[in-house]
Amino acid sequence: MYGGKAVDYVLTIVVGWLAWKLVRFIWKREEHKRIFADIPLLCHHWFWGITEEVKSVNDLTMLAQRFVEKTGAKWFSTWLLFLEPAVFPCHPDIFRAVYSAIDVRKRHGWAGPYRMFAAWAGEGLLTSNGKKWERNRRLLTPAFHFDILKSYVNVYNTTTSIFMDKIGQATSDGKSVDVYPYISRATLDTMLRCGMSYVDPSVQNDGNQHPYVSAVHRLGALLFERLLKPVLYWDFIYYNMTAEGKEFRKYCDKVHQFADEIILDRRRSIKAQTSDECTKRKRHLDFLDILITARDDAGLALTDKEIREEVDTFLFAGHDTTASAISWCLYSLGLHPGVQDAVRDEIEAILPGDEQPTSEIITQLQYTTCVIKEVLRFFSPVPAQSRILARPLTMEGKTFPAGQIIDIQQNALHHNPAVWGDDHNEFKPERFLPENSVNRDPFAFLPFAAGQRNCIGQHFAMNEIKTFVASVVKRFTLKVDRDRTAVPIAEITTRAKDGIYLHFLERKSSV
């Protein structure tokens, strides 16, 4: 008897919630019509919105790109079933308003992607808001000081050399290989050495993907599968009643364990050494040192949980986006032999013989930098982000209320013909030459976001990419495998659907 009443009670709650959600959705849609009257509407059904067309994050990204390519719109609006209508910026004017606003926050809440991501990375710099974000950003900024970044070039050279030896062995028979797993291991190795002073020779071993990298990729896929299924937004249902939720927790445990081991290793090292020994061991504090020793204005240290959250954040963000960028750089060079030759000519003119890149040298690579920027435009490493207004914001004469969802579309911005011209789908590094960039809006090219929440590690990433590309192009001639076309897909980062297969031909002058 009691069981039947319990079921009736639960059903009443569920039906009531659905009814409330439906009424709220219809009310929001009517409000949406009023506020968004002059904003282009990407909608294929009055109720479903674009739900039937969007089965993955890549579907949404490509839908946005095609719409912008066709219309040249500054922005558009749309929705998925039972989700509130969102604004999708695709033009520098709108990006300027969003990134210049004080209270545009990472989107948490019931349907917020950052709430779901927090189970993985907690409340690190990538997901946190408000005072916590301000405090931690201030504490961590010294880890990316210019003088510290200069010293990392030697580490980039070391990890890139390991990569080149591995890729040289893998392609010695003339066959192509999927370059992404090798690059992903190399960028993880770089992040561990630079940010954590953690050296593990097994990170770049041949064979299967490193367990941490494999876990990260699976977590990303599971996260976006969940975002497209509103019934899974309830944590209780997702984690207790689905195989995907249990798998997500399993991989979260794996990445957390990896981070915990690194932190514990560092604490033991610090405890075992005197201050003089620490000074002799290394000239500067790295990222993990700063996390452990930092104190805020009140003299409070980061908790163990906060340290782990930041390590989780930087291990992921510090290797995955850079791996995407480098992979597409090498692919683009292989696809465009003339561009590759021009890059090699510049590098060999500045860096003759067996010399390795230095912090001074990489600042002189003007054309190579243009190529990298064009890759970051063409294959946006982070194709989209989600924000929410904490207070009303006026854009283009329209005032949007607090709580309005803003789905930032970097990929659509970078392929907007109204911004980049009708040749936006052509690979042209000369776009970024100084004489061609004079009148470009600073909000037209945003691979690292902008405003107060721009990427704290953007200079670290650019230096790493330049060093990697310069070294690889000096040693190898790159050619794409014409039988295995690389098809970009948007996930957390932009990856290739079935891999990026390249031939690496050892150059005689490099051996």
Automatic annotation (TrEMBL):
Similarity annotation: Belongs to the cytochrome P450 family.
Keyword Disulfide bond in record: no
Species assigned in the record: Dreissena polymorpha
Swiss-Prot/TrEMBL cofactor(s): heme
InterPro entries in UniProt: Cyt_P450, Cyt_P450_E_grp-I, Cyt_P450_sf, Cytochrome_P450_Monoox
GO molecular function ontology, one term from the record: monooxygenase activity
Highest taxon above the source species: Eukaryota
Pfam families: p450
List of residues binding heme: C455
Keyword Metal-binding: yes
Name this polypeptide is given: Cytochrome P450
Keywords: Heme, Iron, Metal-binding
